[in-house]
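hey can u check if this looks right to u? its 540 residues, i copy pasted from the old doc so theres a chance i mangled smth
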Amino acid sequence: MTFYRLALLALALLPAALFGAAPPRVAPRVPLHQRIDELVAAKRADFAKFDAGPASDAEIFRRLHLDLIGRIPTAAEARAFLADRAPAKRTTLIDELLVSPEHARHMADVFDVMLMERQPSALVPQVEWHEFLRRSFLANTAYDVMAREILSGDDADPKTRYRAKFILDRAAEPHRVTRDLARLFLGMNLQCAQCHDHPLNEDWKQDHYYGLHAFVIRTSIVADTKAKISRLAEKADGEVSFQSVFDPRKVTKTTLPRAPFGPALPDVVVDKAKPYTLVPAAGVASKPKYSRRARLAEAIARPDYVPFRRNIANRLWAKMMGRGLVEPFDRDSVVNPPSHPELLELLADDIAARKFDMRSFLRELALSRTYQRSSERPAGDRDGPLYSTAILKPLTPEQLGWCLIQATGLMETHRLALGTKATEETIYASLGGLIPTFTRVFGGNPGEAQTFDARMDQALFLANGPTVRSWLISRPGSLIARLEKLSGAALADELYLSVFTRLPDDEERKEVVDFLARRPKALADLAWGLIASTEFRFNH
């Protein structure tokens, strides 16, 4: 390992307090995707021995659609891509998907789950919040800009009330907001630091927790009698005070607002006789002339704040690669270092240097050999290095729902029914009401990390539930209607391209032909068998 890499590794393992705020390094001219591949391969000297090699066109075509727009492609799209002989067709596809309206809609799903964790909507309608996220991604809004809008969102204007959902739908409960701010925006689980310095991480202190807490302790929710809704209110005073449960002297401490490892932010001096623009009263959402909460975004959502840029780089990496460089996401610390410290430093610096342009960042991840590796392990490889083989990723509930809608032809059926009114927006609006069923069955408990558990109720939903079965009928545009017009190998090819985005091998073709020879009217059962399979439920 070179001296440069050793120095980077040493820096990555230093206590976070030493680099809580640091400007991102200027990226060299080598493209990010190439530097990613170099650092991944440099992790082990024998990396090449375990390299799975590039994914097939069919595998990468399906993977890119799932990761960038949240659904599988159509059989026609798959046929066209597989027949295309252009050497740069993968790059062209990445660029097309990233600017599509479906990418913005998919990323809205991703960030909704990331920030709200499938908690039930309380005070802000889900549709308004989701539309805010979708528009932000459609406009390629920078992540720091989006974060500042969310963290400083003021619900005074009904037209932009959705931006305050992060705090409103947590009931503005200061401790809950503090914990989630640290976890979701900074990659730090500070819950244990509420009562004392973190027992397992000497770098996470109690004053880190209460420094964040000081931004939101003055904020509460008031039933606004004039607007007839619950509103955010804020006091002009109120300080945090805390004691460590392990301190025998029970010394009471206090702190000004501050991001972990960042400087304290002194309060702005205002006229003590008139500290409010809206004075507290029954049914009034009070507004002070100086708002601590309004300064939260400027303290956190900034390129020179290391935890902020590391957190988003790690989460976007995990979205594409199937695993974070730091796992769990909210344990980024010296006692739980990244699997590839240099790589996380590189990614964090890069996304900040490109001004948090998530679209261009995702493009670089998708272009890397690391992302485009096959998911099939080389023969004899039982314990190869991380990322030498593409990681299998279970479909999220949202992806599973949209993939089933696509595979069964329900999306095409609605497209035909809408006729000249068929647009991305109208099609998704007509089908979007079907997705909550999948989040309910496959999403697990609110606030919990998404895992693949294949519970009995999930198997029964796919096997016997009326939802999916009702989509496997013959009607204009449906998969069954298309299959009814075919036979033999052509039918098998259409079925496999529609469901798995690949052609069947000779044995699979024979199985399809033999099955239908015995049960010629069982097309729906045959299709159901494929969409209920493990292969369909994973991103390969």
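The CA atoms of residues 182 and 188 lie 5 Å apart.
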